[in-house]
Amino acid sequence: MSAMPTKPKTPKVKGQGTKDKPWQLTTPPGTSEFVAYRDPSADPPALVVQVGKTELRYHDRAVEDLHAMLLAHGDWMLLGSADEQKPAAADTVEAWGRAKTNPVKGWYGLKKGLRGRFGMYLPPVLEALGLAEVEHNPRNNRMRALGKQR
After folding, report:
1. Full-model pTM
2. pLDDT tens sequence across 65-104
3. Are the C-beta atoms of residues 111 and 56 closer than 8 Å to each other?
4. Rounded to 5 degrees, what angle do the CA atoms 108, 148, 72 make?
5. Strands 132-134, 54-59: pairing kind
6. What is the DSSP secondary structure assignment for residue 68, as one 8-state letter?
7. Rounded to the nearest 5°, which phi and psi values hold at 90?
8. Could you tell me the residue ranges of all domains in the chain?
């Protein structure tokens, strides 16, 4: 007899997603810690990710846009994280985050040279907000949407 599937739990996350109280998050494989917060006063509004001394910025709307895409996709999707200088694997969160067919018609990353890694840093933010379930394996992690369109 197999066990009943359990409802995914939103991880307990420290922080509130603000500059003064950023979320304290871990990459999906659990290999690195980082902080993230939303900066609505930036031009354009940004999701700021701080990894050590490196600051990455993504369009703030990436959170809702990624959630909407995952809902429409309807199933698990590979994360496929890659640096900006490397090609993204097809049909991954990373590839979608730089595709000309996404809502911003290209890169969600705002800093040239640091626009990649969308598939590494956005999934934990969606997970912290209860918008997605994310796998936490050493490699080849996937995510899927939770909830309904906002």
Report:
1. 0.89
2. 999 999 999 999 999 999 999 999 999 999 999 999 999 9
3. yes
4. 55
5. unpaired
6. H
7. -65, 150
8. 23-143
